[in-house]
Predict the 3D structure of the following.
Amino acid sequence: MDPQLFTAATNGDLDLLQNLTPLQKSLLPFQFSPNQNTPLHVATEFRQLGFAKAIVRDCEALLWLQNGAGDTALHVAAKEALPEFVELLIQFRRLLAMVNLNGDTALHCAARIGSLICVEKIVEAEPELCGVVNNNGESPLYLAVAAGFWEVPQVIIRKAELLASYKGAKGLTALHPTLFYRNYDFEMIKSLVEWRKEMIKEQDDLGLTPLHYATLYGRTKAINLFLQNESSSIYIVDNNGESALHIAAFRGYADAVEEILNCCQDSCYLVDNKGRTPLHAAVLGDQRKVVKLILGRAKQGRVMNKADCDGNMALHHAAFHKFYDIIEILATNEKVDLNVKNNKFLTALDIFNKHDLEGLRAAVIRNILVGSTGSMTMQHLAAEEIKKMNQEIEIEDDDDGDNDTNGIISIKKKESSYNTEKQKALEVNLLVATLVATVTFAAGFSMPGGYFENVGLSILSNKGGFKVFVIFNTIAFCCSVFAVLLHFHTSITDHYQRVRYMGIAVTFTSIAIVAMVIAFASGTYVVIANAQAFSLTPFLICGGFAFLYFAIPFCDPGVEGYSFLHIPQRFIRRKIVQHVRYEE
């Protein structure tokens, strides 16, 4: 493009145009910038309305020329939201139908930026443009909605109600993007539904309907509106076979789930491509409230015990993902069958036991699931019993033929794994006994209260608490030393004899520990006896820990406990299970 002409177009210099000869004016269509812009494009871009009018009057051929992007001057005016230029250029009706390289008309460009005045002028001039879609399949209405300009769609619907298209890219409709925005306009959604309610059942390339998007973002009012107009849309599934209820359940939107179930009670039986119901989805999303809601609405146990393609019902998934609360909700429902096995013949208890979890919470879950016994559980219990039997006896064949019988039962050494476990237990017991012996030996020569300097006798020897200290410290020392000696003696004999006396050593070590604690409490008491407010503190603290030591196996549902106290033990454990379940 001639530099003087380009400068005149940017500055609106009409003198240059007036001084052009007819030959020079005829050459104007051949004046291009590096972007293939004509002088009319440049004048429009720089908002020189007078220059644009003059150059159109002198050379109308410039109107139909397109730049490198395929835009006419009208496209540029629409993109820049220049209503005066649009009004000037739409007088040439053929210009309205021209599209750029993206297939956009000027109406597409104006709608994309939300230029309300430009949209009104173009729609009034050519309403049919509202039904044109670009190369991406996008209509002007869709572009305006997707960009969040709510007033533009209203103008298009009002002025071209029957001609306008709602189509968007990748199978989307104008209704789909309205549900995406955080501050979405429900009135806009309502007006779109009133205009074309068939959009509710339209699916995008992922198979998602506007109802799917509404449940994805928890738009309860929109869900209610969609169901009122097209209740059958709840039964439309996406490419994964998931309904809108599946999505709402997984995301945990209880209000949306309740709205759907109020409209379509049987929708809770819908299954996706993996055979999973909305209850499965709620469990996989760890949505306790939704799980309770679906269980409350389900009239039969069929949905609760429904298995997916892998044979897993909702309880199996909860056990696999260690969702404690959901396991309790499902397992305590009388309609849930705890003995249902998946395709691998595993119950929920089998799956949960694979985690090898510890703690009171895990023990409570096992206690709840204890009613289920699958192949894995039965085989595990049988294997444990056989292992115990093989550790005690072994049947050998008589290869020498000295006996007429096929085999004899003989007592043998423990198996290698069993030996390792027992060896560790023996080492721990020996270590504890040695520590107790060391502590009590030192305490015997460090009497509480000290000694008389001249005589060497203990100052507190006449106190009752001191006598208790001496007695129990001596008991602790003797019992621990006895346990150590027992270990020492059996270490030089055969291994079986050492294991045989292990119970005796453990008993004496336990007595030594208890005696040491009593000796400590009495020794501390005799020293602070004059401080009446604190004199009993050592006994209370030591007694509290002793009580805790014996109470834990009594109350913990995950351990065997004390068989001779099974009746009160069962009662206490039941109360603890209820407390853990309902308080946490």
Notes: Residues 418-535 form one domain. DSSP finds 31 helices and two strands in the chain. Residues 7 and 13 are 8 Å apart (CA to CA). Confidence is low (pLDDT under 50) at residues 393-401, 404-415.
